[in-house]
Structure formats: structure tokens, C-alpha cells
Amino acid sequence: MKISQKLVAYLLAGSLTLTSCQTANPYTGESQKAKATTGALIGGLLGAGIGALSGGDSTERKQRALIGAGVGALAGGGIGAYMDKQEAELRRELEGTGVGISRNGNQISLVMPGDITFTTGSAGISGEFYPTLTSVAKVLNKFDKTMVAITGHTDNVGGRDYNYRLSQARANSVAQFLRTQKVAPQRFQVSGRGMDQPVASNNSAAGRQANRRVTIQLAPMN
User: Fold this and answer.
1) Burial class (CB in 10 A: 0-12, 13-18, 19+), 177
2) What radius of gyration do the chain's Cα atoms show?
């Protein structure tokens, strides 16, 4: 069977689980359709099929393959409810910390601004940020079927090589701290992107500040 035929068969098999994806809303307790709805399920199943083939380098391909395989494998097992509950706990634990939380299907993203996470030009975590990372670790340890992709980003001040090394070092610092809090290291995918993935223009101080960040992306795994 060709790869495309296998993928279609896989998607059809996964679609049979759609009618059973009822969950309890973590905020209200009411019955609802899980966030692993048709679109999210198909996206997850596609991720499992092509994750290893996408991405610009070996690190990114590995990350996408692991995330894709995790979504595909757990799509029929209450993944929506699992991620709903994890999101609710993260929002509760991180309220008022300055960490941004967003949700896209069954992936949760945490954005840690560089100005509150690190001292300027350093990969050392600010002491004031330790309690916040401890709260993140607390949730990760409770929801231990989650893949943890940690990525460092910088603005465009300084050379490309310098910014790449700094972003990698900052991502490693966050990963190392989470390890000290007993988060299993095999769950991590750690990388630095330097100045290559800005979320704002580097032509203003506010834009450069937004670009200096570490993100933690959470996705279900086997």
C-alpha cells in the first residue's frame, strides 16, 4: 500500500472515534464535545502521518514527529479532556505571572517574555521567575503524558551566531530548571531559533522586547 493510501486509511479509522468524544468542561462540569473535534482529530492524525517529513532541520522534524505521533495515538482516548484540564490548571497556576497562554487545537503554548525570565544578555534565569517555573513544573508533573518543546528566541540586536547561541542557552536553562523539579528529561525537545522567528517588528523597542522570549509548547504523547 502506498504512503498516501495508508494515511487515508489511518484518517478513516481515526474518524470512527468522533462520536464518542464527549467530555466534561473543566470550568463548568457540564458535558461538552471535547476540543479534539473533527478538525483537531484530522490535524492530529495528519501530524502522525507526516510529522517526520516536515520541518526545516533534524531538530524540528523530530519535534513535529513526536508531537504528531502523540496526537495520533491518543486521539481516541480522551485527549481533548486531558488537554482541557491541563490548560485550566496552567491558567490557574500562572495567573498574574506575565506568562502568555494560548491554545491551538490540542497544543498549548506558554510564552515567557525575556524581560521577566532572564537578565539582559544572559542565559541565567532571574530569581524572581523561579516560582513561576516551579508552577509550570507542578502542572507538567501532574499531566505527564505531555511532550514539552522548549524554544528560545531573540531580537535582531547583535550577530546571528551570538543570538542563536543565546537563544539555545536560554532554552537549555529553562529545561534544566524543569529537570530539577523532576520533570522527565525524555519529554523535552529543546532548541534555539535566534532571531529567525520574530512575532513583532524589530524596528521598535516594544517589538524587540516581544521577540525576546522562551516558548514552551505542550502536546499530548503516547
Assistant:
1) middle
2) 18
Kindly list the domain boundaries of the chain, sorted by start residue. 3-220
- Would you give per-residue pLDDT tens digits along the chain (222 residues)? 444 444 444 434 444 444 444 444 444 444 444 444 444 444 444 444 434 444 445 445 554 555 554 444 455 568 889 999 999 999 999 999 999 999 999 999 999 998 889 887 889 999 999 999 999 999 999 999 889 999 999 999 999 999 999 999 999 999 999 999 999 999 999 999 999 999 999 999 999 999 999 999 999 875
- In order of 15, 71, 81, the CA distances from 105 in angstroms are 16, 10, 12
Report phi then psi at 106, rounded to 5: -105, 25
Q: Coil, helix or strand for 119?
A: coil
Spatial distance between the Cα atoms of 16 and 137, rounded to a whole number of angstroms: 35
Task: Please give the CATH number for the structural domain made up of 3-220.
Answer: 3.30.1330.60
Residue pair 54/203 in contact (Cβ under 8 Å)? The answer is no
Q: Is the pTM of this model over 0.70?
A: no
